[in-house]
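Continuing from the previous page of notes. For each protein in this section, the sequence appears first, followed by its structure tokens. Read the first protein now.
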Amino acid sequence: MIRHAIRLAATCSIVALAQMPVAAFAADAAAAPEAAAAESGEGAPIIVTATKRETDLQKTPIAIAVVSSADLEKQHVQSLIDLASGTVPSLRVATFEARQSALTVGIRGIVPFDANQTARDQGVGVYLDGVYLGRQQGLNAALFDVQRIEVLRGPQGTLFGRNTEGGALSIVTKAPTGEFGGRVEAGIGNYGQRTGEAHIDLPEFNNISIKVDGVYQHQDATVKNPAAGQVGWNYYDRVGGRIQAQWKPVEGFTANISFDKSRDDNTPMYSQLINYNPNNLPVATLAQIAANGGKLPSGYIAPLSPLVQVSGDKRMKTADIGVPQQVSTDRTQGVMGNLSYDLNSDLTLRSITAWRQVDTDQYDNSGGAHRTVFLPNTKFSRYSLSFLDQHQFSQELQLVGSLPNLDFVAGGYYYNEHASENAATPSSNQWNADGTGYTTLSPNVTGTVSSSNQGWSDDSLFLQRDSHAKAESLAAFAQATYTPPMLDQLHLTVGARYTHDKRDGTLDIVNGAAVDYGFHYSKDRFDPMVTLAYDATQDLNFYAKYSTGYRAGGANDRSQTFDAFGPETVKSYEVGAKMMFLDRKVRLNLAGYIMDRDGTQVDFDNVNTDPSSPYFNLHTQETTNAPGTTKIRGVEAELNVHPIDNLSLGASYAYTYTKVPKTLNPFLSTATTSVYQNVFIVYTPKNAASGFIDYSIPVGSRDESVQFHLDAAYAGRQYSFEDENVKAQSSFIVNGRIALADIPMSDNGTKLTVSVWSRNLLNETHIYRLSYANANTLGAYGNFNPPRTFGVEGTVRF
């Protein structure tokens, strides 16, 4: 019955959507006034929509961090990857592999290693105006006119559903105002940076308000490529546009429609050889290799080409080996519709309908000779190509209301996704006999395409894998908060969500051979939540919470047989306090939690780096559910202080402890021997902290001011591979901005702001991703954070 009801509702919503003018949409969450989205002064409320209704952050019994539009501007955040610096300590953002084209997002130690596939999901849900974004690919598109980003920590399985066991990252954009206005900005910076934005609100006409957004962002490579005509590394060129329309034909009814489209051309971060022969193995000579049939003798390490630079802890500015590197391209687009009707003053019915698509062409040649063993006259530099197409449809219905002493929300949800991907890994270069020179291979090959005769043009691809998967999810949810009539300081919230997940997939090609491996996954899930909150005073709020969440099961398309794995589930116990002191000039929020996760999805990798092997460059990965319970424990604190006018200070801290049970390694185990090894949660430092200082000095006779901003973030050492007991380096990133703000340009309110900004102001260098997988054949490789960037920007608001 639930499934039929939700499908019927989805059909009705599509019909309603088709009858309305196609323009733009902002989810109901975006309806909150911009002025309330972030603190504008001492004690001003921060409005959030984590409970599907507008509430004061301090009175919402959920651990939430809010990054406002002002915060994004001060920190020069252009896309989600800029949050990797650690503004919110419990939020971890990193590249998947070294690629900007796909992001790994984690909260509270729930961080997937490899969800960059057709039949796998992340453990943190990313939402755009209330719409779930199903793939890691495309997440780094340019941000549009963002009102705020809500980081909802801990399981959000009741109201947000599947794949939110670590929490949710909710991006809320600005809705049309119905009044003429907007802002236009442009900027330039080092590394050839240039940006341009336009956000225009048009006057309301016939009850229709329209808003248009356009964004352009460009940066040249920060690591140069010696190969002529090829792009370097850490390059991006992003462009996107969106149009929104809000229609209010009658009192109480609002229809928001939007269409957006973005393109992100980018290259990966460069992979550097950190050391050579760290285990001090005997180095094979060219004669020994020749005597062994061109293969590396057992127990020896390959010699190092004299052309290869061992970088140590130094970030390279120019690669030592020139390789073909073209841009990866992510194309995202979507149509979203939000219908809201006030049945009466206390009851609202909403419908959120969305169709979205991601189309990715991946070209990752980040390793050069730093991840491949040198052998005479052999090929090297693994060019990782992947071509993914995904489209999704989602429909959510919400009934939000209030009764005496009771606030509630109930609804249904339907999600349907289709994804397909094929991948190839040709080598792009070839050594000479002694490693003193190399040639660049042709992207086109003649003769029969095979593992040893392949290129990277469309007609020369030797597909390592080709997979297709579809997913369907249906859910019904309800949550209610009861406040006893004689005890209005006490609030009891109870919620639950029932979900039915179904996923099917086929692996058609493995290492160039046609196969027919399929899997079917079908599960039902019930997620409860209970929260008890107590308002000791207007400014002292305490809560205790029990909740559950899960990440859906699936299959690994990097495996040889499309092996399926089960879901992982989490139970969370949390206590928190939200407090205001000193006439609301000090805000202190605390949270402590215990999370127990069962069925942890663990990835084991095996990449063949031996050029003499017929399976050279083949990347095989197996996923298994860890036995027992993964323990995750943490404490979080956020402090904001307004000691005097025009001065704001803030600090945040997150402590995270994780322990995963030893897990069977399928690559080391045999029919007679089972090898269980330690595994680790990636991109989760035990200690992370951030802080900021904002100070403004009024100047001139009107609203002008000089504004100073400084923020810093620290993160301790952290694992970057689940199956490697190796930690990458700690980091300390400082960003800064000085602005002359609100310079009057006319009597009609037009104002100009000119700013100078810098990210990674101190040019700190650290390895954020480190692997010793090739320690016995070459050495460790790593990826470095971006270098210091800076620029000047002008913004006109009217």
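Done with the first. The second protein uses the same format. Note its length before scrolling.
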Amino acid sequence: MAAAFGSSAAQAASPRPNTSARHAAPQTATGRLMQPGIAHELALSRATTLADVHYDLDLDLTRPDMAAGAVRIAFRRRRDAGDLVVDYRGPTLDAVRTNASAVANLEWRDGHLRLPAHRLKGGVNLVEARFTTPIAPTGAAIIRFDDRSDASTYLYTLLVPSDANLLFPCFDQPDLKARIRWRIRAPAEWTVVANARVEARDTAAGSTTWTFARTEPIPTYLAAFAAGPWTEWGSAPTGQRPITLYARKSRRKEVDADTIIKANRDAAHWLETWFGVPFPFSKLDAVLAPAFPFGGMEHVGEIFYNENSFIFREPPTLTQRLGRDATIYHEVSHQWFGDLVTMRWFDDLWLKEGFATYMSARIQAELQPQSEAWKTFYIRNKPVAYAADSTRGTNSVWQPLANLDEAKSNYGPIVYNKAPSIIKQLAFLAGDDGFRRGLHLFLTRHAYANATWRDLLSAVETTSGVSLKAFGDQYILRAGMPRVETRLETRGDKVSRLTLAQSPVRALPNDPGGWWPMKVQVRLGYRDRPDVVLPASFEGDTATVAGAVGLPVPDYVWANDGDYGYGLFLPDARSAAWIAAHVGEARDGLLRAMLWGALWDLVRETRLPPARFAEIALAALPHEQDEQIASLILNRASIALVRYVSEANAARLFPPWEQALAARTQDGALAYGLRKDSLDALVSTARTPAARALLHDDLSGTRLFDGAPVKQLTRWNIVERLLAVGDPGAEALYATEMKHDATPEAGRSAFIARAATPDAAIKRDYFHRYLDDPSLNEEWVSASLAAFNDPDQTGLTRAFLRPALERLEWIRANRRIFFLPSWINAFVRGQRSPDALAEVDAYLSRRPDLPIDIRRKVLEARDELERTIAIRRAAGAKEPA
């Protein structure tokens, strides 16, 4: 427990270190701080005057649509702190008392309650209130999921980044950590799970009241509970951490409970050892939350996971299993990075998300060494990061944030994919031992408290002895990334000079310039002799590979061996030609994946025709035995064929593409994952009559997969594809599948499939429901957006582009994180025509007042659309009608 104004729970009464201009705290009237959202000025004012916060929360969940509650907020306050602002956005608030005295004439507006200074005192204070908060499928702090298969109801909270004040009155900012005690009344047949252990259960009159222990100091966005008739699995082997897994009872037979529990336990144990910091909380449980809108959420002591990502409806591929493990490792890592040490403000969101992703790869490398974790890391992170960071919509890893209302928009590829990528470079620069000791120092210095990125770099500098100022300036404060070109000079059959030159991928407004400090390894690849790997460091915009001089001329040069550098690494023309002809010959999995990535980057830079990439992929696929790389090839080739190639090349390439995939699905010599990924690729891209006939055979059972008829999820994917291409029998197959599927997920699957129908009336109905149907869970919406915006239906979906853009501010205010970028990307990137690009540009032009965070998301998608148009033009494709 923190002492008054000193310490771990609130980071103190003394002013914060001035890490940037944003930390200046102008003296303003309290009224100015009561603007909608959580203004940074308000947060700074409270963090420097309040400490030792405790919440006692009582909630009644026995009504279906509304929870009634009471809260007691205890805290220490500096005597001269002025009026107190408490955050609350729920529908009702009453019986407010300060220090046992009732407050009349409440000033409650714009989501804030103002309590005058004369009702407060220096030292310990107590604020009490009663309130109500909605329970709903979407748009509420308490999400309700109604399981139609057995008429059960499940509830769970989701408060990140600043929706705790939608649930209960609080100080809703990450650097006012608090100890929270939940007391929850629920129907007697339900189980309730919260952040801490259960202390008591009292049953009376058809309901049970669950009382939980008080938590350690945690930020409000990590407060959570889940309630419903959960089925559960407990596991407490001798000497190991007990973990309980919860899932809805209708899916009990589908849950691989032992594997999920073991992965959580193993990750926690490994992190304790590697960080040298014990698990920081009283328990660790997991909830498979139905219709959960994220992959996972790291609530203290009880991680929520996306049910559909954790329950496989058919045997999973290696890529799917690794994806589930990666989510577990990511969320468990958060118990240290984010939960134990929390970013001071959401401008440093990367400090928890980037590290959780990076640590996920380290855990995979240790616990599953055969999986080639850094290959997985590259495939999952680098292409996504590069695609976002090369647009005008990019932003710095540290993202200025004036109000938490804007925090939802900070979530995206920069914090989830770029940040872990530059952390890998940071570890390489600092050395693994210095980096590890730096993380230990950081976690112990700021345990149960808050920190900034400067605190992190300071800790790593201390333990490694490496100056990281340039790293912070260029990778954390600067937006964008370098393009690194390889320049190979030869004299006869020897290398006379080998250099790497960097320049910004794109000119950005207000770019401070300079060069990105980078330490890389450069591979000189030879077919008839061992490769040579040499170090190189940028100490300016050029790096010289001194050790290369005098070596035989290599077949190719790869400038980012081991994937330690961050940037768009483009091979020289000679190397590119060799890679295109021999990419499958690279024996190391990470290297082979990166060479495929280099070829794809050349496509996106219009230096390699997409049809040529598809031909290379078709030639290489029969020889590729690595499931992750094969999946990467299938994904990139699918994009090339569906979005980029000309009509003539599509007509030429689709038949052999479909034939190759169909043959792979039936090749018993291939591993299951290779065959299943090929089947999925065939289902998602089939367009010729011959391929559609195969899909009909799959549904009828006349064509088997893995010795049996295709399973339920694949059946729905086939129906979706046949609907999308307007197959004459698709409607009848849809009706048949509705009767055939008796699983709990039938409704969701049918909803997604129907969105692909090329019918204007159906599209209009879906678009209306997406935004105006309060009974529709937003996870269903997100899952159906790709089907709605099928790339071959731009003639239908183009009409929805403008209305989709016009609702962006409403979406940011009323939907969860990730929904806004998913919406923008689906509707903007789902187009392929210059007319669509002009529509986006017109929207941006007529909305100069568009909030900058939304503008950036639109620009990111807009530039990707522009790139698609450029690639199609270079490939000779016609403009879509």
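What the second structure shows: The radius of gyration is 28 Å. The chain is about 40% helix and 20% strand. We return to this in next week's lecture.
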